[in-house]
Amino acid sequence: MQWTKVLGLGLGAAALLGLGIILGHFAIPKKANSPAPSISAPQDLDLEILETVMGQLDAHRIRENLRELSREPHLASSPRDEDLVQLLLQRWKDPESGLDSAEAFTYEVLLSFPSQEQPNVVDIVGPTGDIIHSCHRTEENVTGEQGGPDVIQPYAAYAPSGNPQGLLVYANHGTEDDFKELQTQGIKLEGTIALTRYGGVGRGDKAVNAAKHGVAGVLVYTDPADINDGLSSPSETFPNSWYLPPSGVERGSYYKYFGDPLTPYLPAIPSSFRLDLANISGFPPIPTQPIGFQDARDLLCQVNVSVYNRLELRNSSNVLGIIRGAVEPDRYVLYGNHRDSWVHGAVDPSSGTAVLLELSRVLGTLLKKGTWRPRRSIVFASWGAEEFGLIGSTEFTEEFFNKLQERTVAYINVDIAVFANATLRVQGTPPVQSVVFSATKEIRSPGPGDLSIYDNWIRYFNRSSPVYGLVPSLGSLGAGSDYAPFIHFLGISSMDIAYTYDRSKTSARIYPTYHTAFDTFDYVDKFLDPGFSSHQAVARTAGSIILRLSDSFFLPLKVSDYSETLRSFLQAAQQDLGALLEQHSISLGPLVTAVEKFEAEAAALGQRISMLQKGSPDPLQVRMLNDQLMLLERSFLNPRAFPEERYYSHVLWAARTGSVATFPGLSNACSRANDTASGSEAWAEVQRQLSIVVTALEGAAATLRPVADL
Amino acid sequence: MQWTKVLGLGLGAAALLGLGIILGHFAIPKKANSPAPSISAPQDLDLEILETVMGQLDAHRIRENLRELSREPHLASSPRDEDLVQLLLQRWKDPESGLDSAEAFTYEVLLSFPSQEQPNVVDIVGPTGDIIHSCHRTEENVTGEQGGPDVIQPYAAYAPSGNPQGLLVYANHGTEDDFKELQTQGIKLEGTIALTRYGGVGRGDKAVNAAKHGVAGVLVYTDPADINDGLSSPSETFPNSWYLPPSGVERGSYYKYFGDPLTPYLPAIPSSFRLDLANISGFPPIPTQPIGFQDARDLLCQVNVSVYNRLELRNSSNVLGIIRGAVEPDRYVLYGNHRDSWVHGAVDPSSGTAVLLELSRVLGTLLKKGTWRPRRSIVFASWGAEEFGLIGSTEFTEEFFNKLQERTVAYINVDIAVFANATLRVQGTPPVQSVVFSATKEIRSPGPGDLSIYDNWIRYFNRSSPVYGLVPSLGSLGAGSDYAPFIHFLGISSMDIAYTYDRSKTSARIYPTYHTAFDTFDYVDKFLDPGFSSHQAVARTAGSIILRLSDSFFLPLKVSDYSETLRSFLQAAQQDLGALLEQHSISLGPLVTAVEKFEAEAAALGQRISMLQKGSPDPLQVRMLNDQLMLLERSFLNPRAFPEERYYSHVLWAARTGSVATFPGLSNACSRANDTASGSEAWAEVQRQLSIVVTALEGAAATLRPVADL
C-alpha cells in the first residue's frame, strides 16, 4: 500500500526526465559498496528495494526497447534474430546495468520456411484449367513495413509441399465434428480443398482431421467475426484501428508437439541423434496454407493450392543471464520470454522482450551499484524459435533436465506482455497464486481511478474461492508458450503473465494482427498501449514476483492452494463420472481419501511454517521447509502416465480431451472407455489412471509431512 | 587406527560378559541429557561415538538374534513372518534401545505357493505308464528342522501349474545357446522335459528359453560340481560339513521382473489398479520344478512333472524405523535388509536381520541415553517378500517415490550378511567407494593376524586403479537384492555388503544350503561363522558407514570416483565397438567430450570441497555442496531410455546383454544391430542410445559445476 504513493511520484519523474535516470528520486539508504551479507543471515525480502525497483521500471524505456526490438522482422534463426542475441548479450554484460554473467546457447533445429524461389500460391481455377484469381502472396504494404525481403510470406510452418487441386469445401473450424457433419450432409470430401477458419482446434489439427476424410489440401483463413468484431473494410482496420486489414494472414506453426521435431527428449546439439525425416510424427499430413479474409471471401469452386515449404536445419540460440544468489545460489527463479517473431512481432513477443530488458536493467543496475544482491539466483532467459514449437525452451530443459528440476523455485513466463490495456491475466499452478496476489495488491493499476492491479483484475476475471471468497481467477497452463516444458516435462511451478482485453469491448479471438506483418511498433504505440503503462504494469508485476521469490526467507509458494484444485477435480469426478464408474465397479473412495490426506498435510505444513515465522528460525530449517514447497510440484510428475503424449508427465495438468473437468488422465480414459466398444481394456485403463492419480496425491502428501516422519 | 585397540578391549569385554551390557567399558564423556545441538552448528562425525559404536556391536548378541530369527521358517506372509514384524516393532520401540519411531507398512501382493492339498510331483514313468520312481517331495529330515508343516515344499515360485509328461532331455544351464546346441545335434525338443542345472542364467530364463523350443516342462537341479565342490555323499554333506545334502533343493522365484507382479509402478495398496492375471508378463511359460541332485541322478527317460502351484494375494509388510536427524532430518541414510526366508533362512536373510537388530540396538541405546543423535536421519528397513522378487522394497519405492528420491543420501543393503568367513565383499556405485574404504581401513578383520578389513579384503578382490593404485575392487550392482529399485528406479547411490568366500577353497556357486531347509542356525553356528566374528565385522562395517554418512558435515560421497568407470566404459566402446561404429558413420567423439567434461567438473568440485574444508564453512554452503553430491546419481536416470526394461532407468547400470563392457544401452543396441538383418532402424537405436548417454553425462557434469554458473 505504502509504495503506491512512491509510485505516483515515480511516474511523474519518468515523464519529466524522459530517458533520464530517475534513481535520485528514490533515495534509499545506500548500503556499503559490498552487499555480501553473512551467508547464513536470514536475508529476507527488503521492502525498500522492492519500492526502488517498482519505481525504476520505466514505461518510456520499455517503449524505446520495443521500438528497437521491433524495428526489423526477426524470425527465428534470421540475421536480425542473431543481432538481437547480440543486443541481449550486450545489455546483460553491461558494466553499469548488466547481470553477473550472460551466455548464448545454440541448438541446431529443424525449422520450416516457404521457398524463396517459389512462393506458395492459392489460385482459383476455371473449368478449363485457367487461373481465374490468385490469392495475395504477401500482405498489402499499408505502412511500409509489410514489404521487403525480410517479411516472410504467410505460410503454415511444417506443412508439406505439394499442389493439390480440387473443389472447395467450407469446413468451418476443421474439427473432427465439422468434417463428420459435412459427411452426414452427403458432401464428398475426397480430393477436395477444405477452407477452414482459425480457432476451435489447434492449427495442425485441421489438416490432420481433413486428411482422415481424404481431403487433399487445407486453407485456413482469419474470419473477421472472430478477430475483428465483424469489421472488415480497410477504413475500419489498421492503420485506422487495431483491427486486421483484409490482406492480413496469420502465420504459425502447424506442428503438433513441441521442441525440435528431430530430437524428442534430446537436446538439439549437433551430436545428438536425429530422427529420420520419414520417422517424424506430428507434421500436418497434407499441404496447408493460411490466407487472409479478403481472399477467403473470393474463393470459389475449384482451387489449386501450391505449397513449396522446405525443412531446414538452422541454428537458433537461447540467451541466458544470471544474477547469482548471495545466500542460496543453487535456487533459481527463472524468468523467460521468447525472442523470435514471425515478422516484426512488436506484440508477439517483443512487448515481452522490452519488459525483460527493462527488468534486467533495473535489477542489474542495483546489482552493479552494490546496493542489492538477491538471496537466491535469478535467471533471465531469451528463448529462440518459440514460434516453431517452443523449441529453444524445450531443448534447454532437455539439456539441463536434472539441474533445472532439482533447483528451480518457479518459472515465470512473459511472452506477449500486452494484448490490450484492460486488465492483468495470469495463468499458473496453484502454488504461485498467493505470490501473484501479494504482488498485485501493492501495484497501482494503469488507467483512471486508484485501483491496485489486483482490484482491477478481480473486476474482469474472478471466482468464488471456498477458502478466500471472491478472488481473481488464475487460468490454467496449456502449452501455448515456453512454460510448457517447465510445467509438463519438469514439474516446476510456473506462471504466464500478461495484460489483456476487456471482453465486453471486443470478442477478438486474439489481438487482430497476431502473426501478421501488421504487428508493428506503431500498432502497439497507437492502439494497444499508448504511453506503455500496461507494459509498465506487467514489468512491475513480474518484478515484484521475481523479488518475492528470490528474496523471501520463506518461499512464497503456498502449496495448500492446491487443495482447492484437487477438491474441484474430485467433485467433478464424483458428479459427472461417479455413476458411470460405479457401473463398472470402480470406486472413487481411494481418491477421496488421497485428496483429504493432501488437504490435511498441506494445512499442517502451513501451520508449521506460520509457527516458525513467529520465531527466529535457523536458515537450514527454513531451507528444508522451502525444499518441501519447491519440490511439491515434482510429486505430480509421472513420466509413465501418458506414454503417448510427448513430454506431458504432470498428472494434474496434462492435456485434457475428455469433457469432464477432472484429473486429465481419468477424464480422458473415461471418455475413451465410454466411446469404445472394446470394453474391459479401456476400463482397466480408467482404473490405472485413477491409481496413478491416487499414488501421486498420496506421494505428494508424504512429501509435505514433517520430514522425519515415517 | 586408534580404536582397533579399543576394539580389542571390546572383544574381551564381550566375551567376559556374554549377554551383559558392556557400555561401562567405553566410558565416553557423557553429554547432558538433551543432546539437541544448535541446529546450524557444523556437527560433524564424532570419532569417539564411532569408537563406542564399533565396540558395542556384539557378536554374541548377533548370534542370539540369529537363533531367535531362524528358530522357525518365516516365509513371506506366513504367521511367523508376521511374528517377526512384531519382534522388529518391539525392538525398535523399546524405551531403552529403540529408535525414535517405527511402523509397519503392509502391501497386498501376489505370491505363489505350492498347493497344500496336492504336492508337486516328479515321477519317472515306465513304458506302460506305470510310475517307476518318484522324486522326493520334501528334503530329508536330517536335523529335525526339515520336517513339519511350515517347511514349504521345494517349488519354483510363479511357475504355472500343469502336468506335462515327456522324454527327459538334459539341457545344461538352459541358456538360449544350450537349447540351440541340442537342436543342432538333431535332438527333438518338442514335448520333452528339460533337465537343467542352476546357474548360467536367471531361474526364470530357463523356462522361457525352453518354451521357445517347444519343451513342455522344466526341471532345475543343483549340481554338486557347482555347489559342493563335487562332493555328494551324505557323509560329506550337512550336518557333517557345510555342503548340501543329496536331498537339498533350492527354492526360488522364477519371476522375470521385480516388485508385485500385479501392480508395476504402483504401490500394492488395496485400492491400486491390478493387472488382469492374463496380462501379467514375466512368469515362466511352462510348468517348472526344482529338484535335488539325488533325484536328478536317478532320472531316466520318460518323466512326468506335476506342478500345482497357486497364485495368492497375501499381505506382506515392511517395517520401517527412524532415528531423526538433529540438523538435517530431511536427509535419509537408508539401511535395509529383507526379513522373509524360504525356510528357516538362517543365512538368507536372517544373518543380515541379526546384524540389523544389533546395529539398531547399539545406535538406539546411544540415542535413548541422550548421548548422541545423528546430523541426518537414519532409516532402518526390514523388507517383506524379497524372495518372491524384491517385492516389499519395490512397493515402498513406488509408494514414496518423490520423498525418497529427493532426500535419500545413500542406500545400504545387507541381505545375507555372511556367506563365509574369508573376506568382505561390497557391490556399489562409485560414489560410495571412498566411504567404504575409510570405514574398513579402521576395523580389524576377524581371524588370525592383525589386518584391517580393508587389508584383508584387498587380498581377495582387487584391481589396479589408475588413480589410487591397488585397491579393493567393488562389484557392480545387478538386481539380486533390495538395492535394485533404489539404484535402477530411483537413482540413489547404493551398496550391498557381505562377508564371503575364499575362492581358492571352494568353487561353490553360492553357500551350498542356499534356499533349502538345511539353511539353519546350526549350519551358521557350526560351519559358516563359528563365533560370529564375520557377522560382527559386517555390523561394524555397516555401522561405520552409516555413521559416516549420517554424521559427516561434508557428505562422504566422492563423485569423482565415477570418472574411472566412465573412462573404462569409454575405452571398451572405443576398443571393441569403435571400428564397427565407424563403419556405420557413428562417431564416439561426443562421448569422449562428455566423459572429459564430467572428469573435469568432478575434479573441480572435489577441489572446491577441499578448499572449503580448510576453512569454517557455513552450514548452508555445505548443504548446497552436499546436495550436488547426493543428487549426482539421479542425473544418470532416464525413464525413457529403456521403455521395455521395467524399472531400469539408470543409463550406466541397466542390465547389459551385449558382450562389450561399456554403457549398457550402447552395448545392447550394438549387439542387436549387429545381429539383426533389419539394418537402419537398429543402427538408429544405437545412435539414440549413444545420445542418451552423452546427454546424461553432459547433464551430470552440469550439476557438478558451481551452482550459479550458467
From TrEMBL, chains A, B:
GO BP term, pick one: proteolysis
Molecular functions (GO terms): aminopeptidase activity; carboxypeptidase activity; metal ion binding; metallopeptidase activity
Keyword Glycoprotein appears in the UniProt entry: yes
Alphabetized SUPFAM superfamilies for the sequence: PA domain, Transferrin receptor-like dimerisation domain, Zn-dependent exopeptidases
CC cofactor: Zn(2+)
Keywords, in A-Z order: Aminopeptidase, Calcium, Disulfide bond, Glycoprotein, Hydrolase, Metal-binding, Metalloprotease, Protease, Signal-anchor, Transmembrane, Zinc
Residue ranges of domain Peptidase M28 in the record: 318-526
Annotated family: Belongs to the peptidase M28 family. M28B subfamily.
Function: Aminopeptidase with broad substrate specificity. Has lower activity with substrates that have Asp or Glu in the P2' position, or Pro in the P3' position. Lacks activity with substrates that have both Pro in the P3' position and Asp or Glu in the P2' position. Lacks carboxypeptidase activity. Lacks dipeptidyl-peptidase IV type activity.
Name the UniProt record assigns to this protein: Aminopeptidase NAALADL1
